[in-house]
Protein backbone atom coordinates (compact mmCIF):
# COMPACT_ATOMS: atom_id res chain seq x y z
CA UNK A 1 0.00 0.00 0.00
CA UNK A 2 1.09 3.54 -0.72
CA UNK A 3 1.45 6.30 1.88
CA UNK A 4 -0.52 8.52 -0.52
CA UNK A 5 -2.56 7.61 -3.60
CA UNK A 6 -2.16 11.02 -5.22
CA UNK A 7 -1.15 10.96 -8.89
CA UNK A 8 -1.00 14.46 -10.43
CA UNK A 9 -2.58 17.90 -10.76
CA UNK A 10 -5.22 18.85 -13.31
CA UNK A 11 -6.10 22.46 -14.16
CA UNK A 12 -9.72 23.53 -13.72
CA UNK A 13 -9.40 25.81 -16.74
CA UNK A 14 -7.51 24.09 -19.53
CA UNK A 15 -7.33 20.50 -18.16
CA UNK A 16 -3.52 20.46 -18.40
CA UNK A 17 -1.85 17.85 -16.18
CA UNK A 18 1.23 18.45 -14.00
CA UNK A 19 3.52 16.44 -11.75
CA UNK A 20 3.24 17.17 -8.05
CA UNK A 21 7.00 17.43 -7.69
CA UNK A 22 6.92 20.95 -9.14
CA UNK A 23 6.30 23.83 -6.67
CA UNK A 24 3.26 25.14 -8.54
CA UNK A 25 0.50 27.45 -7.44
CA UNK A 26 -1.81 28.13 -10.39
CA UNK A 27 -1.63 26.59 -13.86
CA UNK A 28 1.48 27.82 -15.76
CA UNK A 29 -0.42 27.60 -19.06
CA UNK A 30 -3.64 29.50 -18.31
CA UNK A 31 -3.55 30.66 -14.67
CA UNK A 32 -6.40 28.32 -13.70
CA UNK A 33 -6.71 26.56 -10.36
CA UNK A 34 -4.99 23.20 -9.92
CA UNK A 35 -6.66 20.18 -8.36
CA UNK A 36 -4.93 17.08 -6.96
CA UNK A 37 -6.12 13.77 -8.43
CA UNK A 38 -5.94 10.31 -6.86
CA UNK A 39 -5.86 6.69 -8.00
CA UNK A 40 -9.35 5.88 -6.75
CA UNK A 41 -9.49 2.38 -8.33
CA UNK A 42 -6.34 1.43 -6.40
CA UNK A 43 -7.78 2.98 -3.24
CA UNK A 44 -10.96 0.97 -3.70
CA UNK A 45 -8.87 -2.17 -4.03
CA UNK A 46 -6.48 -1.52 -1.15
CA UNK A 47 -8.41 0.43 1.48
CA UNK A 48 -11.41 -0.27 3.69
CA UNK A 49 -13.06 1.71 6.53
CA UNK A 50 -11.99 -0.64 9.31
CA UNK A 51 -8.28 -0.18 8.64
CA UNK A 52 -8.28 3.31 10.18
CA UNK A 53 -9.31 2.12 13.62
CA UNK A 54 -6.52 2.49 16.14
CA UNK A 55 -4.67 5.17 14.20
CA UNK A 56 -3.97 8.67 15.51
CA UNK A 57 -7.08 10.80 15.97
CA UNK A 58 -5.51 13.72 14.09
CA UNK A 59 -6.32 14.48 10.46
CA UNK A 60 -3.23 12.46 9.48
CA UNK A 61 -5.01 9.17 10.17
CA UNK A 62 -6.34 9.65 6.61
CA UNK A 63 -2.93 10.21 5.00
CA UNK A 64 -3.74 8.02 1.97
CA UNK A 65 -6.26 10.68 0.90
CA UNK A 66 -3.79 13.59 0.99
CA UNK A 67 -1.05 14.57 -1.50
CA UNK A 68 1.91 14.32 0.90
CA UNK A 69 4.02 11.34 -0.18
CA UNK A 70 6.36 10.82 2.78
CA UNK A 71 5.49 10.66 6.48
CA UNK A 72 8.84 12.20 7.43
CA UNK A 73 7.74 15.59 6.12
CA UNK A 74 4.63 15.94 8.31
CA UNK A 75 4.43 19.15 10.36
CA UNK A 76 1.70 18.52 12.91
CA UNK A 77 0.45 19.87 16.23
CA UNK A 78 -2.48 17.46 16.61
CA UNK A 79 -4.93 19.18 14.25
CA UNK A 80 -8.10 17.41 13.16
CA UNK A 81 -10.08 14.75 14.98
CA UNK A 82 -12.16 17.45 16.69
CA UNK A 83 -15.41 16.66 18.54
CA UNK A 84 -18.69 16.20 16.69
CA UNK A 85 -21.12 17.42 19.35
CA UNK A 86 -24.87 16.71 19.34
CA UNK A 87 -26.87 19.83 20.09
CA UNK A 88 -28.41 20.16 23.54
CA UNK A 89 -30.03 23.57 23.08
CA UNK A 90 -30.29 24.92 19.52
CA UNK A 91 -31.78 21.70 18.17
CA UNK A 92 -34.65 21.92 20.64
CA UNK A 93 -35.26 25.58 19.80
CA UNK A 94 -35.39 24.79 16.08
CA UNK A 95 -37.22 21.47 16.31
CA UNK A 96 -34.25 19.58 14.88
CA UNK A 97 -33.68 16.12 16.31
CA UNK A 98 -30.24 15.62 14.74
CA UNK A 99 -28.24 18.84 14.84
CA UNK A 100 -24.46 18.54 15.38
CA UNK A 101 -21.49 20.89 15.70
CA UNK A 102 -18.04 20.00 14.34
CA UNK A 103 -16.00 22.03 16.80
CA UNK A 104 -12.79 23.12 15.09
CA UNK A 105 -12.48 25.99 17.57
CA UNK A 106 -10.43 23.46 19.57
CA UNK A 107 -7.59 23.34 17.03
CA UNK A 108 -3.98 24.24 18.05
CA UNK A 109 -4.24 27.91 17.00
CA UNK A 110 -8.00 28.10 17.58
CA UNK A 111 -9.33 27.73 14.04
CA UNK A 112 -10.00 25.25 11.25
CA UNK A 113 -7.15 26.82 9.27
CA UNK A 114 -4.78 24.46 11.10
CA UNK A 115 -5.96 21.55 8.96
CA UNK A 116 -4.99 23.30 5.76
CA UNK A 117 -1.69 24.69 6.97
CA UNK A 118 -0.53 21.42 8.48
CA UNK A 119 -0.90 19.87 5.03
CA UNK A 120 0.26 22.84 2.96
CA UNK A 121 3.37 23.49 5.04
CA UNK A 122 4.19 19.76 5.13
CA UNK A 123 3.81 19.61 1.35
CA UNK A 124 6.00 22.69 0.89
CA UNK A 125 8.64 21.09 3.09
CA UNK A 126 8.53 17.98 0.90
CA UNK A 127 9.01 20.17 -2.20
CA UNK A 128 11.97 21.95 -0.62
CA UNK A 129 10.22 25.33 -0.49
CA UNK A 130 12.06 27.66 1.90
CA UNK A 131 9.84 30.74 1.93
CA UNK A 132 6.17 31.46 1.39
CA UNK A 133 3.52 34.15 1.38
CA UNK A 134 -0.11 34.35 2.35
CA UNK A 135 -2.84 36.94 2.77
CA UNK A 136 -5.01 36.77 5.89
CA UNK A 137 -7.86 38.42 7.76
CA UNK A 138 -6.34 36.94 10.93
CA UNK A 139 -6.91 33.23 11.48
CA UNK A 140 -5.00 31.99 8.44
CA UNK A 141 -2.08 34.21 9.37
CA UNK A 142 -1.87 32.78 12.88
CA UNK A 143 -2.01 29.24 11.59
CA UNK A 144 0.53 29.77 8.80
CA UNK A 145 2.91 31.52 11.19
CA UNK A 146 2.73 28.68 13.73
CA UNK A 147 3.23 25.84 11.25
CA UNK A 148 5.83 27.68 9.15
CA UNK A 149 7.89 28.42 12.25
CA UNK A 150 7.88 24.75 13.29
CA UNK A 151 8.94 23.77 9.77
CA UNK A 152 11.72 26.36 9.50
CA UNK A 153 9.89 28.05 6.63
CA UNK A 154 10.40 31.80 6.14
CA UNK A 155 6.83 33.15 6.25
CA UNK A 156 5.56 36.55 5.13
CA UNK A 157 1.95 37.38 5.98
CA UNK A 158 -0.08 40.27 4.57
CA UNK A 159 -2.68 41.04 7.22
CA UNK A 160 -5.69 43.05 6.12
CA UNK A 161 -6.16 46.41 7.81
CA UNK A 162 -9.61 45.34 9.08
CA UNK A 163 -8.19 42.48 11.19
CA UNK A 164 -8.69 42.97 14.91
CA UNK A 165 -5.61 43.78 17.03
CA UNK A 166 -5.69 40.47 18.91
CA UNK A 167 -5.43 38.44 15.70
CA UNK A 168 -2.57 40.63 14.51
CA UNK A 169 -0.78 40.13 17.82
CA UNK A 170 -1.23 36.35 17.63
CA UNK A 171 0.43 36.26 14.22
CA UNK A 172 3.37 38.16 15.67
CA UNK A 173 3.46 35.82 18.65
CA UNK A 174 3.99 32.85 16.33
CA UNK A 175 7.00 34.55 14.79
CA UNK A 176 6.14 35.53 11.21
CA UNK A 177 7.08 38.67 9.33
CA UNK A 178 3.87 40.67 8.82
CA UNK A 179 2.72 43.75 6.95
CA UNK A 180 -0.66 45.47 7.13
CA UNK A 181 -2.44 45.34 3.77
CA UNK A 182 -4.74 48.10 2.53
CA UNK A 183 -7.13 47.51 -0.37
CA UNK A 184 -10.48 48.49 -1.87
CA UNK A 185 -11.61 44.99 -2.85
CA UNK A 186 -10.52 41.36 -2.64
CA UNK A 187 -10.09 41.54 -6.42
CA UNK A 188 -7.04 43.75 -5.89
CA UNK A 189 -5.51 41.22 -3.51
CA UNK A 190 -6.14 38.29 -5.85
CA UNK A 191 -4.65 40.16 -8.82
CA UNK A 192 -1.58 41.12 -6.79
CA UNK A 193 -1.00 37.57 -5.58
CA UNK A 194 -1.49 36.01 -9.03
CA UNK A 195 0.99 38.50 -10.51
CA UNK A 196 3.47 37.58 -7.77
CA UNK A 197 3.16 33.93 -8.85
CA UNK A 198 3.81 34.82 -12.51
CA UNK A 199 6.55 37.40 -12.07
CA UNK A 200 8.34 36.33 -8.88
CA UNK A 201 7.65 32.62 -8.68
CA UNK A 202 7.02 33.08 -4.94
CA UNK A 203 5.23 30.06 -3.49
CA UNK A 204 1.91 31.05 -1.94
CA UNK A 205 -0.38 29.60 0.68
CA UNK A 206 -3.65 31.42 -0.11
CA UNK A 207 -6.60 29.03 -0.45
CA UNK A 208 -7.01 27.71 -4.01
CA UNK A 209 -3.97 29.65 -5.25
CA UNK A 210 -2.20 27.05 -3.13
CA UNK A 211 -3.34 23.79 -4.76
CA UNK A 212 -3.21 21.52 -1.69
CA UNK A 213 -4.38 23.52 1.32
CA UNK A 214 -8.05 22.72 0.79
CA UNK A 215 -7.26 19.00 0.42
CA UNK A 216 -6.94 18.84 4.20
CA UNK A 217 -10.57 19.91 4.53
CA UNK A 218 -11.58 16.57 3.02
CA UNK A 219 -10.94 15.32 6.55
CA UNK A 220 -14.34 16.70 7.54
CA UNK A 221 -15.98 14.12 5.30
CA UNK A 222 -13.92 11.24 6.66
CA UNK A 223 -14.26 12.18 10.34
CA UNK A 224 -17.99 12.91 10.17
CA UNK A 225 -18.91 9.88 8.05
CA UNK A 226 -16.94 7.59 10.38
CA UNK A 227 -18.71 9.10 13.42
CA UNK A 228 -22.08 8.35 11.78
CA UNK A 229 -21.08 4.71 11.09
CA UNK A 230 -20.15 5.53 7.49
CA UNK A 231 -23.15 7.61 6.59
CA UNK A 232 -23.11 11.20 5.38
CA UNK A 233 -25.27 13.88 7.04
CA UNK A 234 -28.17 15.36 5.10
CA UNK A 235 -26.75 18.89 5.38
CA UNK A 236 -23.24 20.27 5.83
CA UNK A 237 -23.16 23.99 6.71
CA UNK A 238 -19.99 26.07 6.26
CA UNK A 239 -19.06 29.71 6.76
CA UNK A 240 -17.40 30.82 3.52
CA UNK A 241 -14.59 33.29 2.89
CA UNK A 242 -12.50 31.89 0.05
CA UNK A 243 -14.39 28.61 0.41
CA UNK A 244 -11.64 26.02 0.92
CA UNK A 245 -13.60 24.35 3.71
CA UNK A 246 -16.79 23.71 1.79
CA UNK A 247 -14.99 22.68 -1.41
CA UNK A 248 -12.63 20.33 0.40
CA UNK A 249 -15.43 18.70 2.39
CA UNK A 250 -17.52 18.22 -0.76
CA UNK A 251 -14.56 16.62 -2.52
CA UNK A 252 -14.00 14.31 0.45
CA UNK A 253 -17.60 13.12 0.48
CA UNK A 254 -17.38 12.53 -3.26
CA UNK A 255 -14.32 10.32 -2.79
CA UNK A 256 -16.07 8.26 -0.11
CA UNK A 257 -19.07 7.79 -2.40
CA UNK A 258 -16.80 6.64 -5.25
CA UNK A 259 -15.13 4.16 -2.91
CA UNK A 260 -18.56 2.87 -1.89
CA UNK A 261 -18.06 3.72 1.79
CA UNK A 262 -21.14 5.99 1.96
CA UNK A 263 -24.36 5.63 -0.02
CA UNK A 264 -25.48 9.26 -0.16
CA UNK A 265 -24.03 12.78 -0.31
CA UNK A 266 -24.83 15.78 1.88
CA UNK A 267 -26.31 19.00 0.60
CA UNK A 268 -23.78 21.76 1.10
CA UNK A 269 -24.70 25.19 2.50
CA UNK A 270 -22.46 28.24 1.99
CA UNK A 271 -22.92 31.09 4.46
CA UNK A 272 -21.71 34.69 4.21
CA UNK A 273 -22.60 37.92 6.04
CA UNK A 274 -25.40 40.14 4.76
CA UNK A 275 -23.00 43.04 4.31
CA UNK A 276 -20.90 41.18 1.77
CA UNK A 277 -22.26 37.97 0.26
CA UNK A 278 -21.13 37.50 -3.35
CA UNK A 279 -21.68 33.72 -3.27
CA UNK A 280 -25.31 33.86 -2.04
CA UNK A 281 -26.02 36.70 -4.45
CA UNK A 282 -24.79 34.63 -7.39
CA UNK A 283 -26.78 31.62 -6.14
CA UNK A 284 -29.98 33.66 -5.90
CA UNK A 285 -29.45 34.78 -9.49
CA UNK A 286 -28.71 31.27 -10.72
CA UNK A 287 -25.12 32.10 -11.67
CA UNK A 288 -22.09 29.81 -11.59
CA UNK A 289 -19.69 32.69 -11.07
CA UNK A 290 -19.77 35.47 -8.45
CA UNK A 291 -18.70 39.07 -8.93
CA UNK A 292 -17.69 41.68 -6.41
CA UNK A 293 -20.44 42.61 -3.98
CA UNK A 294 -20.83 44.35 -0.62
CA UNK A 295 -18.68 46.11 1.95
CA UNK A 296 -16.11 44.01 3.85
CA UNK A 297 -15.87 46.58 6.64
CA UNK A 298 -19.60 46.51 7.46
CA UNK A 299 -19.87 43.23 9.41
CA UNK A 300 -18.56 41.67 12.62
CA UNK A 301 -17.94 38.41 10.71
CA UNK A 302 -14.38 39.42 9.84
CA UNK A 303 -13.12 36.00 8.79
CA UNK A 304 -15.68 35.62 6.00
CA UNK A 305 -16.04 39.25 4.94
CA UNK A 306 -14.79 38.71 1.38
CA UNK A 307 -16.46 40.89 -1.23
CA UNK A 308 -15.02 38.99 -4.23
CA UNK A 309 -14.14 35.27 -4.23
CA UNK A 310 -11.05 33.87 -5.93
CA UNK A 311 -11.67 33.12 -9.62
CA UNK A 312 -15.35 33.92 -9.29
CA UNK A 313 -16.01 31.42 -6.51
CA UNK A 314 -16.75 28.79 -9.14
CA UNK A 315 -15.64 25.90 -6.93
CA UNK A 316 -17.83 27.02 -4.03
CA UNK A 317 -20.86 27.48 -6.28
CA UNK A 318 -20.22 24.08 -7.89
CA UNK A 319 -20.31 22.45 -4.45
CA UNK A 320 -23.59 24.17 -3.63
CA UNK A 321 -25.31 23.50 -6.97
CA UNK A 322 -24.00 19.97 -7.51
CA UNK A 323 -25.01 18.87 -4.01
CA UNK A 324 -28.51 20.38 -4.17
CA UNK A 325 -27.71 22.74 -1.32
CA UNK A 326 -28.10 26.48 -0.98
CA UNK A 327 -26.19 29.68 -0.21
CA UNK A 328 -27.52 32.36 2.12
CA UNK A 329 -26.50 35.47 4.01
CA UNK A 330 -27.12 36.27 7.68
CA UNK A 331 -27.21 39.60 9.51
CA UNK A 332 -24.93 40.63 12.34
CA UNK A 333 -27.92 40.48 14.69
CA UNK A 334 -28.59 36.87 13.67
CA UNK A 335 -24.91 36.06 14.17
CA UNK A 336 -24.89 37.53 17.69
CA UNK A 337 -27.98 35.51 18.59
CA UNK A 338 -26.32 32.37 17.21
CA UNK A 339 -23.25 33.10 19.35
CA UNK A 340 -25.49 33.19 22.43
CA UNK A 341 -27.15 29.92 21.41
CA UNK A 342 -23.77 28.28 20.88
CA UNK A 343 -22.75 29.48 24.33
CA UNK A 344 -25.62 27.40 25.71
CA UNK A 345 -24.07 24.44 23.87
CA UNK A 346 -20.78 25.04 25.70
CA UNK A 347 -19.16 26.36 22.51
CA UNK A 348 -17.37 29.69 22.23
CA UNK A 349 -17.53 30.68 18.55
CA UNK A 350 -16.30 33.76 16.77
CA UNK A 351 -18.95 35.57 14.68
CA UNK A 352 -17.95 33.94 11.39
CA UNK A 353 -18.33 30.49 12.95
CA UNK A 354 -21.71 31.33 14.45
CA UNK A 355 -22.98 32.28 10.99
CA UNK A 356 -23.41 28.57 10.23
CA UNK A 357 -26.02 28.14 12.98
CA UNK A 358 -27.69 31.39 11.91
CA UNK A 359 -28.02 29.93 8.41
CA UNK A 360 -29.56 26.74 9.81
CA UNK A 361 -32.20 28.88 11.54
CA UNK A 362 -32.99 30.47 8.18
CA UNK A 363 -33.07 27.08 6.49
CA UNK A 364 -35.58 25.79 9.04
CA UNK A 365 -37.66 28.97 8.78
CA UNK A 366 -37.78 28.70 4.98
CA UNK A 367 -38.73 25.02 5.03
CA UNK A 368 -35.50 23.85 3.42
CA UNK A 369 -34.25 21.87 6.43
CA UNK A 370 -36.66 19.33 7.89
CA UNK A 371 -37.07 18.34 11.56
CA UNK A 372 -35.55 14.87 11.10
CA UNK A 373 -32.70 15.91 8.83
CA UNK A 374 -29.15 15.27 10.04
CA UNK A 375 -27.39 18.65 10.04
CA UNK A 376 -23.71 19.39 10.75
CA UNK A 377 -22.50 22.94 11.37
CA UNK A 378 -18.77 23.56 11.18
CA UNK A 379 -17.53 25.79 14.02
CA UNK A 380 -14.49 27.24 12.27
CA UNK A 381 -12.94 29.44 14.97
CA UNK A 382 -12.87 30.20 18.68
CA UNK A 383 -14.75 33.12 20.16
CA UNK A 384 -11.54 34.04 21.98
CA UNK A 385 -10.25 35.21 18.60
CA UNK A 386 -12.69 38.10 18.76
CA UNK A 387 -13.50 38.83 22.42
CA UNK A 388 -15.09 42.20 21.64
CA UNK A 389 -17.84 40.36 19.75
CA UNK A 390 -18.52 38.16 22.78
CA UNK A 391 -18.80 41.30 24.91
CA UNK A 392 -21.26 42.67 22.35
CA UNK A 393 -23.30 39.48 22.36
CA UNK A 394 -23.52 39.11 26.14
CA UNK A 395 -23.96 41.96 28.61
CA UNK A 396 -22.19 41.86 31.94
CA UNK A 397 -24.42 40.77 34.81
CA UNK A 398 -25.78 43.68 36.89
CA UNK A 399 -25.96 41.51 40.01
CA UNK A 400 -23.56 42.44 42.80
CA UNK A 401 -22.90 41.34 46.38
CA UNK A 402 -20.39 41.71 49.20
CA UNK A 403 -18.52 38.71 50.55
CA UNK A 404 -21.10 37.89 53.23
CA UNK A 405 -23.22 34.79 53.71
CA UNK A 406 -26.39 36.86 54.16
CA UNK A 407 -25.98 38.52 50.75
CA UNK A 408 -25.09 35.20 49.13
CA UNK A 409 -28.21 33.60 50.63
CA UNK A 410 -30.34 36.49 49.35
CA UNK A 411 -28.84 36.15 45.89
CA UNK A 412 -29.47 32.41 45.70
CA UNK A 413 -33.05 32.74 46.91
From TrEMBL:
<dbReference type="InterPro" id="IPR036052">
    <property type="entry name" value="TrpB-like_PALP_sf"/>
</dbReference>
<keyword id="KW-0663">Pyridoxal phosphate</keyword>
<dbReference type="GO" id="GO:0004795">
    <property type="term" value="F:threonine synthase activity"/>
</dbReference>
<dbReference type="InterPro" id="IPR001926">
    <property type="entry name" value="TrpB-like_PALP"/>
</dbReference>
<feature type="domain" description="Tryptophan synthase beta chain-like PALP">
    <location>
        <begin position="75"/>
        <end position="381"/>
    </location>
</feature>
<keyword id="KW-0456">Lyase</keyword>
<dbReference type="Pfam" id="PF00291">
    <property type="entry name" value="PALP"/>
</dbReference>
<dbReference type="InterPro" id="IPR050147">
    <property type="entry name" value="Ser/Thr_Dehydratase"/>
</dbReference>
<protein>
    <submittedName>
        <fullName>Threonine synthase</fullName>
        <ecNumber>4.2.3.1</ecNumber>
    </submittedName>
</protein>
